[in-house]
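Possible regression after last week's pipeline update?

I re-ran a chain I had predicted before the update to compare outputs. Posting the input and the new output here so someone can diff against the archived version. Not blocking, just want to make sure nothing changed silently.
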Amino acid sequence: QVQLVESGGGLVQAGGSLRLSCQASGLTFSRFTVGWFRQAPGKEREFVAVQRSTGSGGRIYYADSVKGRFTISKDNAKITIDLQMNSLTPEDTAVYYCAAGSGLILSSVRNPAAYNYWGQGTQVSVSS
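New output (post-update):
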């Protein structure tokens, strides 16, 4: 059974940093595209950052809104994927979800509907 468990959320002031971690189990991590999405109140779930499977080249993609501030890192041996978030702003406030999907084509990696597995989410709140 596949499980994704996020940790590391919390409350931080604008300009601060947080590191989210996602521990996976029940899947061969290297074969999956894995990453992070977020959902703010009243908004749709949106793409944050993903890393493609090893077989698809392992390339990393970021949303324009987080590029240069967030860094995703995947450890196939530990089956974890972390999201380092720096220079946080109130607009980054959301529930952050870890996701994993198999067989994703490039055009679908930013689409939440393409992912098979989801964690329960962790709240990130940034105060001004």
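Follow-up from reviewer: compared with the archived run. The chain has a mean pLDDT of 95. Marking as no regression found.
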